[in-house]
Amino acid sequence: MTSHLMPTYATASATFVRGRGTILWDTEGKRYLDFLGGMAVVCLGHAHPAVAAAVAEQARTLVHVSNFYGSLPGERLAAELDTLLGGDGLVFFANSGAEANECAIKLARKRGGSGKHVVISALGSNHGRTLATLHASGEPAKHRTYQPLPEGFRHVPWHDLDALATAFDPTVGAVLLEPVQGAAGVRPATAEYLHGVRRLCDEYSALLIMDEVQTGLGRTGRWFGHQHFGVRPDVVTVAKALGNGVPIGACWARREVANSFTTGDHATTFGGQPLASSAGLAVLSELRRIDAPASARRAGERLARGLRGLAGVREVRGLGLLVAAELADGHDADEVSDRALAAGLVVNAVTDTALRFAPPLTVTDDEIDEALAILGGVLA
Ligand SMILES: *Cc1c(COP(=O)(O)O)cnc(C)c1O
Fold this sequence. Notes:
alpha/beta, Aspartate Aminotransferase, domain 1, Aspartate Aminotransferase, domain 2, seven-stranded mixed beta sheet, four-stranded mixed beta sheet, binds pyridoxal-5'-phosphate
């Protein structure tokens, strides 16, 4: 059958129809180990029973109400996210990572006002694909097609404090950064850098927004990636893992910053609805039960150690269970990921020369060892 989907994605090399934990099955019944996890989305593994039960129960109870009215699951989820982020903040719910960042950018503009609207972000970053978040993303090649883009974005080299200081002026309302640059090939920040960023933000009364869409909720071995570096952001965005696959995003801000918004300043139809919020509540409860940060640290160490031991791997980077393997000369990451897929392992060629791994935080030692064996065979 010919596809009726717009040609925005490469032709699918596999079509998955069922999953359980770290395992996926395709239309032919072939089994795969999923070490991509839907791109750091499926933090608890596929078809997680507690999330499935919560979604089914909420679907039978109340799926959606307008944001003109209250939502108990949404209120509860906001409170739980706030607790994880240290308290005294407020949450806006969206439906994706880009929308969570869009909220953060609008909040920065509302707070800064006209003339203090510029957002600085880093080259190599990915903050989403809406027009504003596309411009915030430090990927100039992707900007060209869509000119003119919304104004007020400035890019600096990643992890270069001098460049950031030079780019700063009183028109800057916010700095938007990932604690670990994911799409750039899994490149963690350092405490020195982020503390320097915080100082510059304070000096110019600009917000520090941490994009934790990929790194949030235990993935890096802490509840949030920025917590590795002891830096206090003003705004934090999350999405990917929050619903374990059910679409949901959230923008958290310190109360004083969040209160820059007043009624009517921002809105979305689906954001914070009971169905997605119930998924989020089940996910957070389960992540706490398994001590997600500790699970990510343990599994991440085993995976990184194994990768370092493979011939054909030159360098291993990452934090917790967000890991990249830089391949030795002569290996093409796309080709390696295609061969791994054929051999039953789902991984992502994050750059031409590196593979990215973001398996469920519930991945077992045996599954890690099996994935390493498959990859070792492919690289040999
Ligand atoms: C995936 C991602 C986004 C965009 O999220 P969408 O849900 O695809 O809109 C934004 N920021 C980071 C760091 C991401 O990894």
